[in-house]
């Protein structure tokens, strides 16, 4: 069973445990002891099931069980022991269960519920605040129950001898107060990842806005000049369906930007009427930080009527894309994105080179602006490259039928010795890119997206690709020397535990998408120094997939769930961490700046799952956490 499935099962068993014990208490109170005994027996089995699940989950990583082991299980075990003592004999004898026994049965239910709430709302890491509030909650519930089931339902007078109930009340109040108080303890501002502390004060150093791109192309390169206008437009997809869009230059997607490796790319962004403001982020392109288009971090959002100039050298050949990073969960969804393709200098172009950005407009999937089936020409024998881009916030599953193919590039980085494969599905993370290459066969070829044919070459076919096993890029292609591995001694090692839970996001309490229990902008920034070797361990404790994305750096995938990558070195800029998965990736800190580090499910980023990685000696923009800076 995958860790993700175990996490879900544990949630189910936790709720079931609470239900069984609460029901046992209720029917015991109603004098139906036989039924209560049955429910309590089921409750004992459920508790045993929980303990077993926690033990199995613990083997998958402490991140998955910390709060269960430290709070959930102890509360449960203590409550079950009390119930055994106070309710066991009368239950087994079939006589009336005394009030204390009834209360004890309820208490197990409260303990089970508290354990579930601590996991589901408190998340990881466990804090003193959450632990104390859980204890306070259970104590208070027990107290209220004790009073309710007491003969005559007598309230406990405020003053008098220190009875068990009075002690419970005091304990509940004390723990509760402490728990609330501790909730307001401020987070540390920075995390050094176990490396050296900052040498430069955060407010002193090179302003990130000074880190601009070169002004000349590489030798032999040209200057590619583009002007892009952000504007609201009503755009018709090929079916005629109209989209009320936010566009670059009135089209969906925006204008395709191209360059040859070594060219200088200059882009002027003008904002005509997007009131929320816009920027351009060059997704996956390791530009100088001042060109990165992160509002509040590297520039101010471009207001309506204003403009901003970007400049970078096209040093990386491959398939990339650009998109707004201002209110991106809305802006990208509504259409503020486009493709960036850089071809290697002196490369032999493919006969057919198709750029295929997949996007969902109002629930309708389109490739480019085509919400039907594309059917471009491709003669038998032609070399074909399909550049698949996922510009949505959820993964898409592709299938290429009718030919053997190679996964030639991932996120714009070439795969070494990509072998030919057939009938393999390709799951592409949000923000990710796959280049598929093949020689056009005599027969028809079809590309499916989430099981539906969306592109046909060489005639009609309707393949069923839904059952195809997934190609695993971690174990694909030819291995090669890599600069770092799981055994490397890293200068910095950051663990990012992704979860859902109660946290502050942009100054408001929310059921947030969290990193290490906190939401943007309260997640401590990650501090690195230029030249550091940096490792990320990204753990997904939640029930949703998180496509993780660090700006400004490609990362090398080391392992998933502790199993090392064995294929071609896999450099990516966006990797899907599925529920229960643990990914290890690494990079060298060779691009100074203040970089966003976030989930590329853009609503998740807006709901808190975003932080910064800052180089020592580089200062961020002042007050840079403005509205919509995600
Ligand atoms: Cu996410």
The secondary-structure class comes to: alpha+beta
| Rg estimate, integer Å | 29 Å
- Low-pLDDT runs of 5+ residues are none
- Beta strands, count: 33
> How confident is the prediction overall: mean pLDDT?
94
Molecules bound to protein: copper (II) ion
Largest sheet properties: 7 strands, mixed
Helix content: 25-40%
Number of helices: 8
Question: How many individual domains?
Answer: 4
Question: Which tags fit this structure?
Answer:
8 helices; six-stranded mixed β-sheet; Immunoglobulin-like; 4 domains; alpha+beta; globular; 630 residues; seven-stranded mixed β-sheet; binds copper (II) ion
Description:
This protein is an alpha+beta fold and 630 residues long. It has four domains: 3-182; 190-210 and 482-619, Cupredoxins -  blue copper proteins (Immunoglobulin-like), CATH 2.60.40; 216-347, Cupredoxins -  blue copper proteins (Immunoglobulin-like); 350-471, Cupredoxins -  blue copper proteins (Immunoglobulin-like, Sandwich). It is built from eight helices and 33 strands. The strands form seven sheets. Strands 21, 22, 24, 26, 27, 28 and 30 form a seven-stranded mixed β-sheet that branches. A hairpin with a 2-residue loop joins strand 11 (352-361) and strand 12 (364-367). It starts with a helix and ends in an 11-residue tail after the last strand. The structure holds copper (II) ion (CU). Residues 513, 546, 599, 601, 604, 609 line the site of copper (II) ion. The site of copper (II) ion (CU) has 6 residues, from loops.
